[in-house]
Amino acid sequence: MTQAEREAPAAPKTLRSALAVGLFWNASYQVFSTLLQFGAMLVLVRVIPPVEYGRAASVVAFLKVLNSASCARFMSQGLQVPGEEEPDWTAHWQVGLVLQLVLGLVCLLAAAGAWSLPEYRALSPLLALGAVGLCIDAPAQLNLVMLQRDLNFARLRLLAACATLLATGTTLGLAFLGLGAFALVLGGNVLLSIPFGIDLLVVRRWRPKSGWFRKPNWRAYRPALAFGGQQVLSGFLQAGQAAVTAGVLPSALGFYAIGLINRADGLFSSTALRISGLISETVYPALPKLLDDEERFRRAAGLFVKLLLLVLFPGAAFLVVAGSDLSRVLYGARWIAADPLLGPAALAGLALGLTAAGYRVLLARSHLRACLGLDFLKALCLLPALCGVLWWREAEPYLWLLALGGLPPAWAALRMASPSLAPGWLQGTLVPTLLPAATAAAVLAVVVDDLGHDPFLRLGGAVCIYCAVWLIVLRTLFASTLRELCSRAPGGSLVQRALFLRGSGEADAH
Which of 223, 236, 249, 361 is nearest to 297 (CA)? Predict the structure, then answer.
């Protein structure tokens, strides 16, 4: 037993209970952080001048590029080690320290360069502050991966809550003192690492093996280098796509249309994609642990994909039909111009979610070339949308092309992941998750105009009708799928009794 294992809290008895506990803690933290950050945002926008936000945004954008090659990309390979085999945490510590010091030095050089240019001199102290955050990040990232591998989401989320409180409180305090940009960079890029580092080195008293200060054994670290290299390339590809899009859209559409696109994207991202991300964040660390048992891995991966699709398809279908009512309740009438964009934005988000589902299964298998190929395919399929927006110069065709361009990566990801899923996954996963959502959306489309004019009443009626039809179709035609999910979900037995579902076979509780 390792030092970390001896000092960590006792793990739940089964994988099933560990994931149930993890889902609770991850969901609780999401609610906590969202409310806290939203409240802080309402204060900060009234205290910090726009010019300070602009300076902070410029520095954070540069730090994001550097973080694309951070030690977190390589340390995540610790999640890929199958079974009960222990990753070489000392090697991750060695390489992490070296890499973060190098990134910190690059950031300091950028700060020196900014100081030499009068128009960028105000950014120099902020870049130097960002360099400090890079240098101290290695212990925090190591602790984060350790806790994820142990499925110790309670400790992880409590530490994250402490970090969020520390960062938010400091940012608010410094903002009231007039240190706007400094407060934003310090809170968002330095302080978040401190609770995790203190927990690892002071509370848990983890220590690397003797001789850790020597030159790392690069040959032994080769699997982590390969995994991290793929993740770094993926990060750079994503950053490149964001940069190209940011360069094309302002001249082609203007900032007003970009704002409408962001609100349309945000509606799906803050609902279905957030829930699917929560599920993925909880379940994914458990998948590589099952690689020693092929049959068990297939069952778990199949259930993982099915659960994601059971969130993504209904979410996208509802927004296509009733997205304008949800937008009116959340955003108000001032965003009515975004209504035509809600449908294609939801479908584009659905394609991203489907791609991520297959991508996660491939990553759990350490199929790094396939994952990198998907990243290149996603970048390639962005080109038609960018060409289209330069041709039509309208937001709606751009989003439709973006949605269509997301179909090839989504199909490729699920197709490549299919050998790792249970046999018959196409009929057992796609049909039970897609058909109830499509049926509910079709029924809602027929009756939605008869629900009145008040947006709150329309939305309430739409939600009730949609959920009722979706659940009836799922219960009537795909009872086995519903029973399978209930048998593995916390409180699922209560749902089974409420829906008059007979008991299922023994769940995979190990």
Answer: 361
What is the tens place of the pLDDT at every residue in 6-42? 444 443 447 778 888 888 899 899 889 888 988 888 7
Query: Could you report the per-residue pLDDT of 87-110, keeping only the tens digit for each?
Result: 999 999 999 999 999 999 999 999
CA-nearest of 83, 188, 204, 213 to 142 is 204
Q: Rounded to an integer, what distance in angstroms lies between the CA atom of residue 401 and that of residue 324?
A: 21
Lookup: tokens for 343: 């449908």
Q: Is the pLDDT of residue 474 over 80?
A: yes
Where are the extended beta strands (E) located within 255-362? none
Amino acid symbol at 330? L
Rounded CA-CA distance 374/411 in Å is 10
Which is nearest to 59 in space by CA: 124, 116, 103? 124
Task: Output the pLDDT for position 437.
Answer: 97
Give, to the nearest 10 degrees, the angle between helix 272-283 and helix 255-269.
Answer: 50
What CA–CA distance (Å, rounded) separates 186 from 414? Answer: 40
Dihedral Cα 301, 305, 310, 311, nearest 10 deg:
110
Residue 178 backbone zone (phi > 0: left; psi -120 to 50: alpha; other: beta): left
Helix 89-115 with 50-67: angle, nearest 10 deg: 140
Helix-helix angle 395-405:407-417, to 10 degrees:
20
Place of tokens 């023994």: 506
Q: How far apart are the first and last CA of the chain?
A: 20
**Does the pLDDT at position 314 exceed 80?**
yes
| The token pair that represents 42 in the structure block | 């309402």
For tokens 């991202």, name the residue.
269
What does the angle CA 431 – CA 436 – CA 441 come to, to the nearest 5 degrees? 125
Shortest CA distance to 428 belongs to which of 341, 322, 330, 298?
298
Q: How far apart are CA 31 and CA 161, in angstroms?
A: 11
Q: Which helix (H) or strand (E) holds 424?
A: none
Contacts of 388 (CB under 8 A, 6+ apart): 397, 398, 401
Q: What is the pLDDT of residue 376?
A: 95
Contact 362, 417 (CB under 8 A): yes
Say how far apart CA 78 and CA 239 lie, in whole Å.
24
On whether the CB atoms of residues 418 and 354 are closer than 8 A, the answer is no
Q: Which one, of 326, 220, 334, 205, lies nearest residue 268 by Cα? A: 326
- DSSP state, 217? -
Averaged pLDDT score across all residues of the chain: 88
pLDDT number for residue 490: 65
How far is Cα of residue 424 from the mean position of the Cα atoms in its chain? 28
Three-state SS annotation for 325-347: HHHHHHCCHHHHHHHHHHHHHHH
Q: pTM for the complete prediction?
A: 0.85
Closest CA to 111 of 53, 59, 163: 59
